[in-house]
Structures are given as structure tokens and as C-alpha cells.
Design goal:
Elements (H helix, E strand, L loop, with lengths): L1 E4 L1 H9 L6 H8 L4 E4 L1 H12 L9 H10 L3
Parallel strand pairs: 1-2
Helix pairs in contact: 3-4
């Protein structure tokens, strides 16, 4: 199965896992699931960080690196 993560879901998976439900957790942990992240998600995070949005407190480079390290 292929799974494309939205920007907020990406942030939750990386930083606030309590926000995602058990069904998504199972999909993310399944080795047969190909998890993908849109490049525009990192761009969106960069813009919101530049605007000083408090809910986007991580640097875009760190988010991209964390997503890659998790195999996304």
C-alpha cells in the first residue's frame, strides 16, 4: 500500500504521535506500506516557520531529515 502524508500528519508522526490513531499507526509500522511525503510539505513548513507560526516550531531541514531517517 502507498500512503501519502499530509503536512500536519507528517508533523504529528514525527513529533506528536499521540495525535494519530491506531489504524494509521498500524499502516506506518507495516513494512509493506510505502510512506511518502510531498516536497511541498517541507516548503509549507518553511513558509510557516518564516512567518513565526508557533505550531511549526521545527526547522524544515530537521523535518526533512527526520522523514528521510524514518524511511519516508
Amino acid at each position: 500500500m502507498r500512503l501519502l502524508l499530509d503536512t500536519h500528519v507528517l508533523m504529528w508522526v514525527l513529533d506528536e504521535a499521540y495525535r494519530i490513531g491506531p489504524d494509521l499507526t498500524l499502516l506506518l509500522e507495516d513494512p509493506n506500506t510505502e510512506v511518502m511525503v510531498r516536497a511541498v510539505s517541507v516548503w509549507e513548513i518553511a513558509i510557516k516557520c518564516a512567518l513565526g507560526r508557533g505550531d511549526f516550531r521545527h526547522r524544515p531541514e530537521a523535518i526533512a531529515a527526520a522523514a528521510r531517517s524514518m524511511g519516508f
